[in-house]
UniProtKB/TrEMBL annotation, chain B:
UniProt KW Cell membrane keyword: yes
Protein name in UniProt: Spermidine/putrescine ABC transporter permease
Keywords of the record: Cell membrane, Membrane, Transmembrane, Transmembrane helix, Transport
InterPro entries per record: MetI-like, MetI-like_sf
One Gene Ontology cellular component: plasma membrane
Segments traversing the membrane: 21-42, 77-97, 109-132, 152-172, 211-234, 254-273
Domain of life: Bacteria
Topology of the protein relative to the lipid bilayer: Multi-pass membrane protein
Organism: Streptomyces angustmyceticus
One BP annotation, GO: transmembrane transport
Amino acid sequence: MRNANPWKAAVAAGVLALVAACGSGGGTHDGGVAEQRSVGKGEGRVDIIAWAGYAEDGSNDPKADWVHPFEKQTGCKVNTKTAGTSDEMVSLMKTGQYDTVSASGDATLRLIAAGDVAPVNTRLVPNYRDIFSGLKMRPFNSKDGKMYGIPHGRGANLLMYRTDKVSPAPDSWKAVFDGAAKYAGKVTAYDSPIYIADAALYLMKTRPALGIKDPYALDRTQLNASVALLKKQRQQIGEYWSEYQKEVTAFKGGDSVLGTTWQVIANTAAAEKAPVKAVLPKEGATGWSDTWMVSAKAAHPNCAYKWLNWIVSPKVNAQVAEYFGEAPANRKACKETADPRHCDVYHADDESYYRRVHFWTTPVPQCLDGRKNVKCTDYAEWTRAWTEIKG
Amino acid sequence: MSATNHEPRTRGRLAALLAPPLLWLVLAYLGSLAVLLLSAFWTTDPFTSDVVHTWTTDNFRDILTTPVYRTVALRTLGIAVAVTLLDALLALPMAFFMARVAAGRLRRALLVAVLTPLWAGYLVKAYAWRVMLGEHGIVNAALAPLGLHGPGYGTAAVVLVLAYLWLPYMILPVQAALERLPAHQLEASADLGAGTVRTLRSVVAPAVRPALLAGSVFTFSLSLGDYLTVQIVGGRTQLLGNVIGSQVTLDLPLAAALSAVPVALVVCYLAAVRRAGALDSL
């Protein structure tokens, strides 16, 4: 038994060398990580990082189970790690112990830049064909013309209000910024540095002199203006929310009457008899679009590709989208939802709706709006700014 | 006396018995603290958030020069002090009643009542308070007839909920100290003509002080490190724990440097308590 270990180590080292050799061969882009050429037999296991609700195995709700059927069909045993925030996902992916991750746009570029994820060969994911074209080759899920993942679903950060407390009905983000004093102490906002983009979006429409073209590409002056607006807003904030149940109870109890939300929160609150309504304001909105990415160091790449294809297959994509409360990525999923109106409610195939949505993107020093003469503020600066805003 | 007379064999056994837990303490606990402190002197790659191992004191300079960190640190300290004072005020009469007035079944019932909340989950209790403190919660409903309004979500709610959560840690040592107080000392005090106030000041207070300080170590340090209660009932406020939490995956060295602040505060507090002599009786 004792002298088995050196053998094991030697074999492992050999495999590693082989993987490294394969990994560096044929990589043409700067990351140096090559995409996969074919999907072979499954490795019997796949390690996943997912948002809560994305990889359900029936343990939370017996009706929500798309993990066991996958295991049965592919022989890949699913090992899920649920992450609470984008930052957590990034740090988990850095360990190299996971094969795939359901990353939002505020994590994807960081993962690509660090070389933690590999480009995805979309030809190996047959269901990619049916993904809405509005989700393909976007700045937050591709780089240099290569897809770095398979789109999963999307949603907008809407403006929700209590119909009995807020009148007239708001149609602009002005209600939570310049007009927030009217509902002082009852306004809510999303508790994350990425919320700075919501202020930037509002300034983009109301103060054109600032020259904001993309709410995720802010130079120092533009960031300062957004921070100033959010500091002013803080005076009227009752509480910030990051956990969706917290916002449901706040609107139900009347502690919050106005603020940013997700469709799923509006639906849940309305189902629990809270008089709420959610709108996409005239300025448009920020939003999120999640992408299943594959680790550059995936130990089970074949199973990871099988999972990618499974999770965006029409039936499963419909199940996830309905369970989580988002627009599915696969156009054929709209025919599979239990509620036939699901895709209408979430505007799944309404590209004109999503043209008004600026999906979360990681702010980086190279301005995403193409400006070359100025350096933009990065996510670390946004995080420090957010701490300062909350005071 | 007997401690110095151990046979070498007994001593060897004792060492063998104590070595694993001591090793565990040094490696796992002090070791991780040392790593934490060490990483505070590193820096990160701004985009990929990978830790870069170059020696710098920038993180500490940032913490000392950025006003918001000072504000948050002072707020956290203030809340910890307020929670400790509130718990002391609540625990003293409660513990006195349990130890010296109530007897038999009532005393046992009170002890169970103090201990039971410790069995319920932290989050359950915090969320229960969130419901009670809400706009249409029971607190506002109870205060409405008096024309008053509850504190709502915010700093006051955080103090209230933390004081509730840590109260048993204050009551139990104080109650134990009061129970140990010999009845004849109180009688002697009365015999010598001391009134209630004088007895409380000269007999009861010296006996209770170490227990009170020991309890305050719990309430103070637990409040200093809390970051969940403030998310649930804190409204728009943030504490040191939240700031550390927001940095930990993004800028580990800065988070480590920030963590040094509550560590330093707790060490200072422990030193002060030790000087006051409260740790001698432990």
